[in-house]
Amino acid sequence: MAKDKKQIRIALRNCGFINPENIDEYIARDGYQALGKALEMTPEEVIDEIKKSGLRGRGGGGFPTGLKWELTRKVEAEQKYVVCNADEGDPGAFMDRSILEGDPHTVLEAMAINGYCTGASKGLIYIRAEYPLAIERLKIAIGQAREYGLLGDKIFGKDFSFDIELRYGAGAFVCGEETALIHSMEGLRGEPTVKPPFPSESGYKGAPTNVNNVETYANIPVILLKGSGWFASIGTEKSKGTKVFALAGKVNNVGLIEVPMGTTLREVIFDIGGGIKSGKKFKAVQTGGPSGGCLTEKHLDIPIDYDNLIASGSMMGSGGMIVMDEDDCMVSVAKFYLDFTVEESCGKCAPCRLGNKRLYEILDTITQGKGTEDDLFKLRNLGNVIKDTSLCGLGQTSPNPVLSTMENFYDEYLAHVKDHKCPAGQCKALMSYIINPDACVGCTLCARVCPVDAISGEKKMPHVIDQSICIKCGACFEKCKFGAIFIE
Amino acid sequence: MADIKLPANKVQELREVCAKFNHDKGELINVLHAAQGIFGYLPAEVQEIVAEELNVSVAHVYGVVTFYSFFTMLPKGKHPISICMGTACYVRGAEKVLDEFKRHLNIKVGETTPDGDFSISCLRCVGACGLAPVVTVGEKVYGRVAPEDVKGILAEYR
Questions:
Q1: What part of A 386-425 touches B (C-beta under 8 Å)?
Q2: pTM reported for the whole predicted model
Q3: Which of B29, B62, B97 is best to mutate for the A interface (most A CBs within 10 A)?
Q4: pLDDT tens readout for residues B80-116
Q5: Check: CATH 3.10.20.600 for A242-316?
Q6: ipTM above 0.90?
Q7: Which of A75, A184, A318, A378 pairs as cysteine with A208 (C-beta 3.0–4.6 A)?
Q8: What is the DSSP letter of B109?
Q9: How far is A76 from chain B (nearest CA, A)?
Q10: Contact assignment for B33 to A129 by CB distance below 8 Å
Q11: What pLDDT, on the 0 to 100 scale, is given for residue B125?
Q12: Same-domain status, B90 and B42
């Protein structure tokens, strides 16, 4: 199958192949061997191996993982912590949930290796309360690993002790930011703080803390077992290995995929994703979640890696990939993301708290058909100010959906403010459903499906929609068998 | 708002939870999760007990409760309905589904029906994007929900 040929499973290697509630099945697939191997090496040698592999943080930032470990290692402290960021808040991304539910031991094993390298004896997994099954499986996995002596005192008979606890999130997107995450684990509001100091110097309870994402951890055991050379042979010059993407939206095959870095968007959407649903035309793909941007037709053939996506005005993010077709209005999409950001802004710094609200209001005005060309200028200007002046990653990237859609779909914005039309037919205020009397046969179906009784007419006579009652739900449009209803 | 009389046995349970966490203020979020599990929501009276037990100000507890969307200060309906507003669900028409629920129940997001049976909330991605748009009622998940399905879903609980 073409669908599988392009995929390589590293992070997802065990998902679906083992019973996640049975540690023996994980061990049978070389589980905990990497930990055993690491404990035979010096911490420096292990860190060196991770550095040589070229692994970069899969949570979105793309910071070199080996370097992060080394920074935490070099700080002298009695107590250090290793944290797993499992606060997968990106709407449309669910690879972390799949790994935690399908292969929880790989995360535990990698965290123990991380603890050995950085000198931490304690690991914490910060996980969303919205993922009850993942929490359950992690609890089972931690219990089994303790029973087997793979967590606890003197692991593998060596002078290395390590244990893991769970901490729960409570629904705040900003807690994916590492300083905010650490505050949340301390029982505080999840507000970010200025870096430096970096968590590697002063993190959880003021101790040096190394935070990595779930997918990053899932790569670690394989790198140690197969070697950094093998891992570095996959991918592009600056982005090694594979990346898991959550393919969703208007594609035929939705779900998780894992492809080598450098695979093109076209291969992902058309070869693996099977193209656009219902034979519609591809319009855009949104990558990087609320922090990312929309890429178009002209970006389909660029090899996906951290740097190329940033150069194209988007970002890797955690790997959500939402495909949109010709029926999606890009102004509405930008508004949708801003609505998210406004709600999720923690409120600590003014540019993010106030600026995004203003961006949202301007976009709302435009989708109501009341925008002017001056509004477009304001959008761009304000967007750039928010990017430059916000405190944390959330604010610094929140205008991206607006700026990237303006860059790639300026005509659509112009249509909204100059002609007061929504080319995709999504902005309700800018459209009306109308029945063509020549095509209507008077079957009465539309009048029956109308939820607000806005359609009237005699049987076998052309019907009429009362625009003052119509809520523009589109039910009549979808049900009409004669194509008699059109959007204006 | 009139003071709510909390059942003594539940208050006792909450105090035991706080003791289990050693009255450690660093465990505030875990305590609040447990409290919401006991009472179903976190009214001011519950927050006052938590503050007292963990030796922090009520304002501190209130600040944390209102920061996180998972915590609620209003009781939810017997059948809490959550509509996923993640991007994948949005692109596949979650808004129209939400509108249908609002219209049928005649309440807004965050409200509960007068009979206490249903409440509507929006949530951000349950990680089931392959089934978009997704609606959950209590623990049950409904995938690929179309506006026409709304009536039938509600009927299951009436």
A1: none
A2: 0.89
A3: B29
A4: 999 998 888 888 889 999 999 999 999 999 889 999 9
A5: yes
A6: no
A7: A75
A8: T
A9: 24
A10: yes
A11: 79
A12: no
